Structure formats: structure tokens, C-alpha cells
Amino acid sequence: MVATSEFIQCELKNGVLVITINRPDKLNSLNKQTIEELHETLLEAENQKEISAVIITGSGQKAFVAGADIAEFANYSVEEGKQLSSIGHFKIFNFIENYSKPIIAAVNGFALGGGLELAMACHMRVVSENAKLGLPEVSLGVIPGYGGTQRLAQLVGKGKAFEMIVTADMITAQDAYKWGLANYVTKQEDLLTKCFEITAKITTKSPTAIKTAIKVINAGYNNKLNGFEVEIEEFGKSFGTKDFKEGVGAFMDKRKPEFKGE
Ligand code: COA
């Protein structure tokens, strides 16, 4: 079981690790310690075979994550600002995007700045009706520094990304859905149920194939790689896995597969 820490609560349910960012008095904003604890939690969960997928949410009913902790970086220098961004990319945002198990953001309220960037680094987003999403950094005289300038444009297109970033406007859950930023919108009380509905489908599938699919989809967004070539390579490799033998064998035998993730 993955341990709970000061700002990160963990609960394992039906093969799914639910991570709750737990700093409600600061609207779950991401200070250094929370980033570190979230990184450690994800690292620990990655090698645990009983965990097939992860859901990340925020504690309370008001906020998913209201951004990076503004008080913490208020007096940063240029060099410290650069470090804040690069450490965040490495420990959380790129780490989540390239995680070997699907991660769903259950956006239960404000997802602002680093909070929206966290949700965008996840593989899917389910958003509650009351949520407000935005990248308000230009209001503070900075820009999004946790991948927001890149991932927002990938998800909603360049025009909407420009609009959201330069106006700093928050958008509603319904607009997020219409623009492709949210996979689903639910009532707040149904948010986790919807996430579990998705993860229930994932937990019965081949972990090795899912890991590979995440890698290959991401390859298409990496300027240094040719996604189609990576796909050909990885498709071929799938034929050498035990999961492939099991999946095809089960189909032929008309039984349910029992994947071992090998
Ligand atoms: N960093 C640090 N503290 C934050 C925070 C952040 N990103 N967002 C909220 N908080 C803190 C507030 O300072 C306040 O703490 P306090 O009670 O000790 O004063 C507490 O969380 C509650 O927030 P508050 O602003 O009083 O709630 P609200 O309902 O009036 O407003 C928001 C909610 C989300 C609109 C507002 O908190 C906000 O604009 N937050 C910053 C969002 C942002 O710019 N994020 C990008 C950062 S780069």
C-alpha cells in the first residue's frame, strides 16, 4: 500500500490509487513539499502491480488545485524561478504525462495555474460542474511554467490557448468540455464514480499494452520523435509479451484474459 503523507492522502480501491492533494486551507496549492510528496507517492505506486490506474483529486469541495504556492515563490530570483519550473516538470508534470499507468484528474473545483497544468499533464480529465479552469499567471506578471503553454494548445488548439493565457480568464466546466479540455463533466457528488467507471475498464486490460499505448501517444507530441515510427516499433514488440499470448489465447478459447502485465 502507498503511504499517506502530510499533504498527500492515498487510498487504494479496486486496483486504483486515489491520490488526494490535501492542503484545503490553501486551496491545495502546490508548495515544494506537496510536489515532493506527490512525486514520492507516484514513484512508489509505479512498481506496485496491484495498482492499475491512478486518480488525482483535491480535498474539499472548493478546489482541485489553485496553482503553485504564490507565497512560496513571491521573492524568487530569475535563477530560482527557472529551477522551480524545471524541477516541477521533472518531478510532476512530465513524470505524470509519461507515467506507465493511466492517470485521471478528478477536477473537483478551481483548477488554476499549476492546478490546471497538473490536470493537463494527466491522461484524462473528469471535471465537476462547479469547477473553474484557467491559467491566470499573466495577472501575476509571470507565464505558466509547468507545461501550460504547450499542453493547453495541444488540448484546445492554439487560438483558445492564446485567449485563455493572455486574458487570464477562468472558463466553466461546460466550456472545458466543449473545447476538449475535459473528457466528461459530472455533478460534484458523481465525480469519483465517473472516474471509477473509466478505471474499471482499464483494470481488466493488458498493463503492458496500456503502458506502451501511453508511450506511443506521447511520442507523437515529442518533436524529436516520429510517432508513426515509434508505433511500428512498439506494435512489433507487443507480439513478444506474455500479455499478448494471454489476450489472443483467451480470445481463441472464448474466455476472459488474465493479464499479468508481462
Ligand atoms: N498560492 C498560495 N495560496 C493560495 C493560492 C495559491 N495559488 N490560492 C489560494 N491560496 C490561499 C489564499 O491565500 C487563502 O489563504 P489565507 O486564508 O491564509 O489568506 C486561502 O488559500 C483561500 O483563498 P482565498 O483567496 O481566500 O479564496 P477565494 O474564494 O476568495 O478565492 C481563488 C479563490 C482561487 C479565486 C483565489 O484564491 C485565487 O485567485 N488564487 C490564486 C490563483 C492563481 O493565481 N493561481 C496561479 C498561481 S501561479
Tell me about this structure.
This protein is of the alpha/beta class. It folds into two domains: 8-202, Alpha-Beta Complex (2-enoyl-CoA Hydratase, Chain A, domain 1); 207-252. Helices cover 46% and strands 16% of the residues. It has eleven helices and ten strands. The chain has helices at 32-46, 70-73, 78-97, 114-121, 148-156, 158-167, 173-178, 191-202, 207-219, 227-238, 242-253, and strands at 8-13, 16-21, 53-58, 63-65, 103-107, 110-112, 124-128, 132-134, 171-172, 184-186. Strands 1-2-3-5-7-10 form a six-stranded mixed beta sheet, sandwiched between helices. Helix 1 (32-46) links the parallel strand 2 and strand 3. The structure holds coenzyme A. Residues 26-27, 29, 66-71, 110, 112-114, 136-137, 140 line the site of coenzyme A.
Helix count equals 11
H/E series: EEHEEHHEEHEEHHEHEHHHH
Distance between the termini: 21 Å
Q: Whole-number average pLDDT? A: 97
Low-confidence stretches: none
How many strand units? 10
Look at the structure and name the CATH superfamily of the largest domain: 2-enoyl-CoA Hydratase, Chain A, domain 1
Strand content: 15-25%
Describe the secondary-structure layout.
Blueprint lengths: L7 E6 L2 E6 L10 H15 L6 E6 L4 E3 L4 H4 L4 H20 L5 E5 L2 E3 L1 H8 L2 E5 L3 E3 L13 H9 L1 H10 L3 E2 H6 L5 E3 L4 H12 L4 H13 L7 H12 L3 H12 L9
Helix pairs in contact: 1-3, 4-5, 5-6, 9-10
The structure holds coenzyme A.
Could you name the key traits of this structure?
binds coenzyme A, 10 strands, 11 helices, about 260 residues, about 15% strand, alpha/beta, globular, single chain, 2-enoyl-CoA Hydratase, Chain A, domain 1
